[in-house]
Amino acid sequence: MQGKKLYVGNLNYSVTNKQLEELFSNYGEVIQVNIIEGKGFGFVEMSSTSEAVKAKEELNGSEFQSRTLRVDEARPPKKKPRGEYRRRY
Questions:
Q1: What secondary structure letter does DSSP report for 28?
Q2: Phi, psi of 25 (to 5 degrees)
Q3: What pLDDT is recorded for position 18?
Q4: Which residues have CB under 8 Å from 54's CB, separation 6+?
Q5: Adjacent-strand bridge partners of 33
Q6: DSSP labels for 4-27?
Q7: How do the residues of the chain divide into helix, strand and coil, expressed in percent and rounded to 5?
Q8: Between the CA atoms of 41, 55, 46 and 39, what dihedral angle is there, to the nearest 10 degrees?
Q9: Going by C-beta distance under 8 Å and a sequence separation of 6 or more, which residues neighbour residue 83?
Q10: What residues of the chain score a pLDDT lower than 70?
């Protein structure tokens, strides 16, 4: 794992940024938390790669608010081609 940003999936829709920050702060300093509203996933950025690795190892597959978390390294967003569009028929 190379990055400090983690993808956190299978979240209960009622989970808040603060709750997720408290959970991950047990494994190091949390820089930023961003839950994607209404989607059941979010992102947590830790202060170091080693903290991110530890959080991933400990929390992936664990239960949080009656849901089994999926924690993995966040992938960079896909780049969309500029100036192109899709036709709809």
A1: S
A2: -65, -15
A3: 97
A4: 27, 28
A5: 44
A6: SEEEEES--TT--HHHHHHHHGGG
A7: 25, 30, 45
A8: 0
A9: none
A10: 81-89
What is the side-by-side strand order in the sheet with 30-36?
30-36, 41-46, 5-9, 70-73
Q: 71 near 7, Cβ under 8 Å?
A: yes
Q: What pLDDT score was predicted for residue 3?
A: 84
Cα 22 to Cα 5: distance, rounded to the nearest angstrom: 16
* Total-model pTM: 0.85
Partnered with residue 35 across adjacent β-strands are 42
Pairing of the two strands 30-36 and 41-46: antiparallel
The domains located in the chain, with CATH, are: 5-69 (3.30.70.330)
**Alpha carbon distance 36, 17 (integer Å):** 10
- For residue 46, what is the enclosing H or E element? strand 41-46
